[in-house]
Queue: 3 jobs
Job 1
Amino acid sequence: MENPYIPYPVRIDDIEIATEDKSLKTFKFVFLNKGDEEKFSYQAGQFAELSIPGVGEIPIGIASSPVEKGFVKFTVFRTGVVTSYLHNMKVGDIMGIRGPLGNWYPWDKLENKNVVIIGGGFAFTTLRSSIVYMLDPSNRSKFKNIDVVYGARSPGMLLYREELFEWEKRSDINMHITVDGTDDPNWKYHKGFVPQIVEQNAPKADKDTYAIICGPPIMIKFTQPSLTQLGYKEHQIIMSLENRMKCGIGMCGRCNIGKELVCKDGPVFTLEQINQTPKEY
Amino acid sequence: MILSNKQKGYTMKFITIDKNNWTKGIDKSRETYQLFGPVKDENGCLIKKLDSDVQPDMGYYESVMSAKSVLFPQTEKILSASLDESLEDHHIMKRAENDYSPRAVLGIRPYDAKAIALVKLNFDTKEFQDPYWCDAYDVTVFVGLGITRPGPFDFSTSVGTGPFCEDDLDILLADLDDHYLAKILTPKGDAFAITCGFDTMADEKESQVLFDILRKEAEKNITSRVEINKLKDKTILDLHEADFWDDLAFSCINCGTCTYVCPTCWCFDIQDEARQKQAFRFRNWDTCMSPLFTRHATGHNPRGTKVQRVRQRFMHKLKYFLDKYDQGIMCVGCGRCVKSCPVNIDIREVCNMMNAYEKQN
């Protein structure tokens, strides 16, 4: 019997400060045992438990992409006991990763479709994984138009800035980068909240267009009406939810929305599915 | 039947156990089995691991806590790691050592055995198996004790079990004053009886008649019941939005007693501890009555109010579980939560209210 509580041992290979306020850092991990990387084979949209012996575990979306080999990456906001401890760890330290956990964005269903990706703040990690996956030369032809609306409070709070600006220059992806506000006179992208930018820039819905949303509850709440206005139906709106989790394998009982467990049946649901459950997220 | 502990092809049989031989037989089994059973202390009767000089109190009336802790201890070490960086495997978590030699639970009530079968649906799934629970389950023999005097809170017969229900047991004992009549239901039960030296065969027909009489007598004394026939047809959202939750939750103090005494409540927390150069990961019983159970790191709490938590508990037991597994409700009618609740919240009333609820348009 596989023990689903035992994490794969990993070494911190690199730590990058991800935002100007230093509240987010991106950790790059390599597996101590070569075979574990194979076992950790994942899809964009899944998460894992970062596991620090003697401190605890945290469920975090996987920010690296299945097409990136040799490492896994997670971008972590410093907020509680485990994340604060992790932020003080150093390159070379040993810890654990348990996963991959949960379901993923429905890549089969999204083939030959237009995909609109909408993200806010630091909930852009699994979306980054998804974009890198879709833009990979072996995958790009599987998808039609790709639009990305991504917003943060200020330019310095945008995650993966270098990649964002590179994607901006490409012709096979339409980037709509926005910030709530900035006094930078050279800022050449959008200013305004995500729901408004979605309404102004996202493609109108048709039967071959799907939207993926990931962000803080308030952004999700106000983006839904924008999408509805653009004609998106409930089954065309795909969302990734977060809830407090411990086990990550559907057993400990806390992350449910109705009979669905966010950790195992989710975290990815369509709005149609979510509308059938109590909104306890 | 998926829930059954029985193995195909085994023919059950009856034996009698003279009470004068009981203790000797049980003591003999201690060489092979870790024994668990009812023990009275200042907190009432609990199902506990029996020290070598402690006999199970087989005359017990009811236990405050169920037998769930035999497979799912209140706190359990699951992983450990060394933090000593001079060691090669430092910070690498490994399964904690635990004793999985054979266990026997003596005197488990039939509804508590049924509860273990329900909890199994959570811990032993297609995708993941909880190795701690499953390993303990695999080595455990369930020696049931029929209930001849059901308590006033017992409503087990209306939720698919009962005072002499044999499902999920390996042996069912009937207490007949100077002896036990034992129905051996599985090879596991047989092996335990043989280890104890209990081998006085009883007449099958007569014994079955006796069991039937005892069962009917006991069932007749259960006057409390719940209606569950219409729960399946209601929608989750209709029940979730029903108008009675506020009134129902008003008196609740969120103490969580109902969840701890419940034989089917399985929710747990995982916590780490470090002592000098050793790290340990534990799992502990948790309760959906606690705000911390669902509070996000941001402070946002999807079940931040008392009424949301009370509703969660009843919806989980009486609706989500039913819809998810199609194996009935997640309640075996033991009545412990009714008896233990300090503010008299009664799952029987809640269940009937949910069952009768019609959405007002």
Job 2
Amino acid sequence: MSTDETGQGAAAAPEMAETSPAVAHRLIQLITPAGERVSHPEFDFWVKDVSDEQLCSLFEDMTVIRRIDVEATALQRQGELALWPPLLGQEAAQIGSGRSLRQDDFVFSSYRENGVAYCRGVDLTDLVRVWRGNASSGWNPYAINMATPQIIIGAQTLHATGYAMGIQYDGADAVSVAYFGDGATSEGDVNEAMVFAASFQVPVVFFCTNNHWAISEPVRLQSHIQLADRAAGFGIPSLRVDGNDVLAVMAVTRLALDRARRGGGPTFIEAVSYRMGPHTTADDPTRYRDANELEDWAAKDPISRVAALLERKGLLTADFQQHVRDQADAVAHRMRKGCTTMPDPEPMDVFRHVYSTPNSWLDRQQEHYARYLASFGEPAGAATQEGAR
Amino acid sequence: MTRMTFARAINAGLRKSLENDPKVILMGEDIGALGGVFRITDGLQKDFGTHRVVDTPLAESAILGTAVGLAYRGYRPVVEIQFDGFIYPAFDQIVSQVAKLHYRTQGAVRMPITIRVPFGGGIGSPEHHSESPEAYFTHTSGLRVVSVSNPQDAYTVIQQAISCDDPVLYFEPKRRYHDKGEVDEGVDPAAALPMGQARVLTQGTDVTLVAYGPLVKTALDAAAAAADEGISLEVIDLRSLAPVDYDTVVASVRRTGRLVVTHEAGQSGGLGAEVAASITERCFNHLEAAPVRITGFDIPYPYSKLEMHHLPGLDRILDGVDRALGRPNSLSGLEG
């Protein structure tokens, strides 16, 4: 059930007519759910260079991250991970946008953008480090130009905007990209981020994946208009794209990035998709949503439609399919191995990196805890007083 | 040495930091053409431009949140929170992001953000303009919290805070903004007394009196008044509120055997409780009396006609000194 199907966008009462109700965006689509490539007068341009080979590569990426997602969910069920936030159904939104970015662009995401992290070149083991409880950040943000995924809903949109202010001050042409969900659009931080981004006209892209559910709350609880329409109130141009169409997502992301690089300021993208799985492995969506809805969206699956398109083009050969399966299995195997062989942190690591400078309060607590641990006759861990900073 | 106001000293320190490091950026509401509601940033936007001294839209969470993004990009943002009571919309960004990103990223991302907060009362303002919210932040790991009490420290410590790789809340006693003092602008902040250390302002033998920010002046006045009665107070300006420089306070209390700690903020769960507990732990065998807290009450900041009842003044502090000394005082005869 997408917002346009519920008719919310057109629900303005007659007496409200003078306030010019939001005009519903047309959903930008380049590949139909049946796998038909449809032309678009404006957006074909942005993907005209995408070759058959690249289309195959996008298919492979989406298949691999779905496999990663399945593997991580299995790892959680097997007790190897404490929790996992599945991205099932959102592969096109993540791969289409993630593959549009340049290395020097910087991503500020939520915890569900594991597919984007994959595009940024994340080490597979780093994807599960946080969820295994071994770290609060899986990776060094500067290694892949992607911030630590944010758990506080929407907070990262401000970081993205601030980073974009820095890009602007530096005179660089990189772009900062904020990923967030439909629920986040209700947060003050997201709205404040759009105010700042518009005021300073900084190179930031607000990429909102409308997956229709914020845990158990449907998008209609967050907004009575299409999310893309909210941007207009901030003076930010917006695009509403079929988030399950990898090519269309790529097209709109490229347009938004290009606008930002050329000094055109922020763009808001609403990628309309669906969270096919639970919010996290701890969630039970059967308590709050209709199975029919799931069925409707299964018919719009992002990977099946590209498979159908490749089939039409004669590219979905047995060899290619085998190659993709092998690739997905290999990646899943590497991730599983990295996960299960990850060394546990040392006890004294608990004190590390709270500050980058010496801190008398913490140094004392650390010293006392080391003595406490030592009182059991066991080594207190590798961390030294110096190292614990 | 130049004689200047407290406000001017902060301004001069900010100017120095802007000159010395191109990554330093000032952000806040009304800090540009107006120079801030207290004129602390007076003239800085004119001299350094709108990209170094940034007037922001009115959204405190965004001021801090964008500062986080700038820090990610390698900048050293110095943000002004217009009044103490306006900091709460930014609380999440300060506590969940600014304070924790270094830990979260295992040291990969530094947050060298300075948060300037005019704080405290005594200026006759309506609600939200006179608060002392420092304990919320001293309780948050990952932050450093300082407060300055005189123009020289204001000038030096703001530069130390800005050059610190950890986030620092810099609490400015707004009712002292117009106080004047000698400032040596040639001081090297790296060679000066470190930001984390307390300073003993008057040597004394009878009672250690710990204060910070706006009450340091009150504490010094109290010491002068006590001296007239033959009581010798050792006044310590805490300067750093997180972490507290306990070495300095412990050394003093081990000599005097008595502690009075004072602040404008409410008593329960306040910094005075932390100081009293830590000093009791570390100096128990040296204490001649229970530590005494002379603080604001556990009330919302009152309307201005009543604020002088809430704010610890010289006489209330001296009453606390009497209590520490076992002399007749307002609570004589009460148990506990």
Job 3
Amino acid sequence: MNIESGKTVIPTTFWNKIYNNNTKSIASKTIYILVLLFVTALFILPFLWLISASLKIRSEVFNFEWIPDPVAWINYAKVWEAVPLLTWAKNSVLVGFLAAIAVVVSCSLVAFGFSYFRFPGRDFLFGLVLGTMMLPGAVTLIPVYMVWDKLGQINSLTPLWAQNLFGSAFYIFLMRQFFLSLPRELFEAARVDGASYLQMWYKIALPLTQTAMIVVFIFEFKASWAELQKSLIYLQNNMLFTLPRGLKAILDRFGQGGEMQWEIVLAASVIVTIPMVILFFMGQRYFMEGISTTGRKG
Amino acid sequence: MSVLQNEIRPKKRISNLQKKETLAALGFISPWIIGFIVFTFGPMIASLYLSLTEYDILRPPLYVGLDNYAQLLKDPKIAKSLYNSFFYAILHVPLATIVALAMAVVLNNVPRRAAGFFRTAFYLPSITPSVAIGTLWLWLLNPRIGLINRGLEFIGINGPNWIADPNWVKPGIVLMSLWSVGGTIIIYLAALREVPKELYEASRIDGASNWKQFTKITLPMISGSIFFTLIVNTIGSLQIFSEVYTMYFGQMNASTGTDSALFFVIYLFRQAFEFLNMGYASAMAWVLFVIVMVLTVIQMAFSKRWVYYEGE
């Protein structure tokens, strides 16, 4: 469970490792570092290029200079003028928060139900939870659309988040992993003190699984922020668009086949991405913890 | 885990407690049960029924038997989109696994503080919203002005037309997908750090080479994680949608690369929500479901041969 437990596994130092192993010469050490830096550059350069191009004036967007000259901050103002950016951002933040909070609460409840209690059919039901992860979303896409249609929620933000009120298999699995690591004595003690099951959940289980809840919140917020398919299906009104849906509209209008004002498209891409970069740097530890837990067997 | 299971209770109270606990447990998991019925199981049945109908939302579904499935066999775009999806999956899954594994091994040899920097660098693409990825890569892959062909030019290679040449559209998309392997890298990195160091020391005394250590110790010890990512990546790659839809579909539809980027789920989406052939799209969805199930079962069956679980 504990990620830090792997500490001793890490080779003493970078240099030692490289020096003492079969790579003995300074030359091969250098090659190793160069390869590492080269690969890193491959991953980073597209971002730098995106930011650089988003700050170029239109006639220079296509050139290959890394430093824009002149720096066209106006591109960002152009995005602001061309589309209801603030409304889209508000929609995205609203949907992201609701989706994340709904999924944290519901999955925590469900995961607690699956980890603390023993009841007939538990393993079968939990197997079913895991099984739904393999179900392609396309299978339920149309009937779920019909459900929201019946409820009068087409062209509304509700379908983008409200399903999260009913849990989500992957996060149930993730939170159950965390709950299972809590010692059972804690709960037994509370029960002797007369706590109800619900109290055991929110007074004991929740405070001890804050990390898990933050992990789930961040993951779902990020997923919701990037979501395109649902917003294509459910949102027709321009003012209801989320940022990804809006960016797609911008690309269609100003990009390929459109007005060829790429500087606007690129500036908009940066705007949509930056909040995620900030989220990542704020919650880096939780991202890593979440992903690492994912890859581990239950 | 065992703490929760190995508890002994007085026999007599079990039935009462059991009842109470079962009720409470059902209460806790009831959100999922309701959701499962309303948003998963019910829709599955509905979708199976719809696949036997002609349905355009406006009028009630008209039962047509297996017509949709017969139509699938005749539709050249079904064959094309299935081919495209498999082409992508067959390139993406092994390449993503190898690339991620190589990078994880390299990162594992970097001291912890520096590793944080590289890890961030490799993970940044994975936090980029898929629409932004699609937009950015439409540019990177542009044959004239894109960074990739300029880079190739720099080393003397005349790069292909990644976004219009039917032979190169899918490799371009695979390239884009490899840029986002950050999540897989981190899963492998976490697994690598849990391999007991003693194993390497013991084998070194026995004179094992680095490569031998990698194939005989590292790979078996992290095979559980590799298996997990293989399953997830296979299922995911057959359902790729957002990035590719962003690049080649939507209102403009001007790009010439369209047909070679028509993946199965994209075609399904268009049939359902652009042409309103909901019955036909439902039949497509069930074909996809069966394919995913079969592939997963095959992978699980083969896993017994090569996946090592501790404690077995």
